[in-house]
Design goal:
It is a single chain. The chain has 313 residues and is an all-alpha fold. It is globular and about 70 Å long. The relative contact order is 0.07. The longest helix has 48 residues. The chain has twelve helices and no strands.
């Protein structure tokens, strides 16, 4: 097989895998979420393996396939959710930016593209996007309530659940910019992890860096402090911006906290079942993530991963 035939085969395999993963996300709302998260992987992998042109062709071929098999709206969702990431992530990896910077830069580009698409959509259709998001959340709550009613939940119990869902809906409407940012970063990290494993298996050179050494830039702590004080401001817009910034920066310090934990797991050779138990504890007790974030903040001053200096007295 000559190089051109190999690249054509890569485009075919990449686009078919991409469309399969994305359509699983669309047609299997719960189980399909897991494969759907990894829809950027095929395009990113073939960019790393065969070059930027092949990666771009995988994106274009995937878009054409989706347009032929589904609605144009789904194509837009694919491009915003996976397409941008499938190009941006390998681009920064090819530029040897390392895993952390590649994720941050890719997410930043993806958010800019999302914002531009939202503004163009709003300007072109005259639709108030905030009102549309609010309507979508309220509709989801109403559908969930109907499901509980069909399951036999009625009376005070149903009212209490409806009240809790309304409170959760109001919270989502307040912090959804931060939720989108953190979710996108999580998806990018998951894709990076899979890419690193595939690259190691097929012996593809890929510079990702050592997660156990992850550390946020020191000036970031000032943004954490400023956003914390911003939440005390009497102005609602300042409060909302500060709250969303605080969540995103808090997520970054959680990552640093996880890096510290990972360092000590490795240093003390903690058994795998204890690591899995810790991960399960984090899922079941979300406040533990806050503890890990605090650990990440104090790592700024404690420098927990540096070798202990020998005392002479």
């Amino acid at each position: 097989m000559n190089p051109v035939q190999g690249q054509i085969l890569d485009v075919v395999k990449g686009s078919v895998a991409t469309v399969t993963l994305f359509l699983a996300f669309v047609y299997f709302p719960v189980l399909g979420m897991i494969p759907g998260f990894f829809a950027p992987v095929p395009g990113a992998y073939y960019t790393l393996k065969s070059g930027r042109t092949v990666g771009l062709l995988v994106l274009l071929a995937s878009s054409a396939l989706l347009l032929a098999l589904s609605e144009p709206t789904l194509l837009l969702v694919y491009l915003l959710q996976a397409g941008v990431l499938s190009l941006a992530l390998p681009e920064f990896l090819l530029r040897l930016k390392g895993g952390a910077r590649s994720v941050v830069y890719s997410v930043a580009i993806n958010l800019v593209v999302m914002l531009a698409a939202a503004l163009l959509y709003s300007y072109g259709t005259g639709i108030d996007l905030q009102a549309k998001v609010t309507k979508g959340v309220q509709s989801s709550i109403a559908q969930t309530v109907q499901l509980y009613q069909k399951a036999g939940v009625t009376g005070e119990e149903l009212k209490a659940m409806q009240g809790s869902m309304q409170q959760a809906g109001e919270l989502v409407l307040t912090i959804y910019p931060a939720l989108v940012t953190v979710s996108l970063a999580l998806v990018a990290c998951m894709n990076l992890s899979v890419l690193a494993r595939i690259a190691a298996r097929v012996r593809l050179p890929l510079y990702v860096g050592d997660f156990k050494k992850y550390r946020n830039p020191e000036p970031l702590v000032w943004l954490l402090i400023a956003s914390g004080f911003g939440m005390l401001a009497p102005s609602t817009p300042v409060y909302l911006v500060s709250l969303n910034v605080l969540i995103v920066v808090g997520a970054l310090y959680s990552v640093q906290g996880f890096a510290v934990v990972s360092h000590y797991f490795r240093r003390f050779q903690v058994p795998m079942f204890i690591r899995l138990l810790s991960a399960l504890l984090l899922v079941l007790q979300p406040f533990m993530v806050l503890v890990v974030a605090v650990l990440g903040v104090f790592d700024l001053w404690g420098d927990f991963r540096s070798p202990k200096k020998q005392e002479n007295l």
